Description:
This is TVP38/TMEM64 family membrane protein. Helix content is about 80%, strand content about 0%. It is built from nine helices and no strands. The radius of gyration is 20 Å and the shape is globular.
Amino acid sequence: MNIKKISLLCALLGAFVLIVVLLPPGMLSLDTLKIHQHTLLDRVELAPLQSALIYFAVYVLVSALSIPGAALLTLLGGAIFSLWEATLLVSLASTLGATLAMLVSRYLLRDWVQRRFAAQMNTIDVGMVRDGASYLFALRLMPLFPFFLVNLLMGLTRIQVRHYWWVSQLAMLPATVIYLNAGRELGKLTTLRDILSPGLLFAFTLLGLLPLVTRWLFSRYIPSIKK
Length: 227
């Protein structure tokens, strides 16, 4: 790893640690959002454009640095902006943050991993060229894989940035809208687990697997039918 990559890694780690350390205890909590909701609503009414830009920038920063709190920020967006405004802001900000995180992972780690696991990475790259969008779609929707981990792993592959952007934006949209709607009833929430029920998580998993299963079925049975 050259000096530029080491410097970037140190800067990112430093920013992450600094933000986490400087945040007051309990700042990223549901109770804190409820306490400050009306104050933030007043701020949005006084300066809507400035508030939207600040919210967007903070969301991108949190997403790009993989700082815990994106779910709470999404709830906040639903609480202080209209649904269509919040959907636009969160969808773009989360996708931009995810793409930046993926590109950083690619820049810092891709070459190192490729040198040490060349055969395995070549196999993965072949699969990503063929089914990369489907894999990413499934990973984004399946609750087993954290947001930051998907960004990290996809950065190690050769998936094209434009594909990464639109698939991420599309796959993250359902959960985004659900959280934003929940944010509109922020006062009634007691825990984040109230938002996504086990049944809904299972439905997301099935939806994520659908493109992969469909492709597998076509590749397995369509050729035999043609014969």
